[in-house]
Amino acid sequence: MNTVKFSAAPAGSTTLAACDYLSCEFSSRRQHFDDTPTEFISQPWKRLVINKEKHIPRRGYTLCFLRQLQDSLRRRDTSFPRGWLMPVLWFSGAWTMAPIMTC
Q1: pLDDT tens across 46-63, in order?
Q2: What is the CA radius of gyration of the chain?
Q3: Is the pTM of this model over 0.85?
Q4: What is the DSSP letter of 4?
Q5: Angle formed at CA 80 by CA 75 and CA 85, multiple of 5 degrees
């Protein structure tokens, strides 16, 4: 989370706020988050993420965030910085497996 800085359109601002929050809390040992941004949590996820005591467990919140980030990236509300994907492809070896584009 600290390595990649995402950018977001207005529709992805809640996902970006949750990403920033999790980046700050990454090294924390807290098991419950009570002051987190919860605007991105959909109704079906609320019953899974928020427990009976109205606490938000770290595991559930992180899983919900990752699902929302995936959806947000798919809709292009959130995006990677330019030029970030190229080194990942190169060093992972996926670059050699990529199809060659010819004009």
Answers
A1: 888 888 888 888 888 889
A2: 17
A3: no
A4: -
A5: 115
Give the residue carrying structure tokens 């090294």: 27
Residues 45-59: b if buried by 16+ CB within 10 A, e if exposed: beeebbeeeeebebe
Q: What is the Cα–Cα distance from 61 to 32, expressed in whole angstroms?
A: 9
Question: Locate tokens 């098991």: which residue?
Answer: 31
Instruction: Considering only residues 18 and 95, tell me which one the structure prediction assigns the higher pLDDT.
Output: 18
Place of tokens 């965030």: 65
Q: Say whether pLDDT at 98 is over 70.
A: no
Which structure tokens are listed for 75? 């809709």
pLDDT the model gives residue 95: 47
Q: From residue 65, give the alpha-carbon distance in Å to each of 1, 52, 57, 75.
A: 12, 20, 12, 15
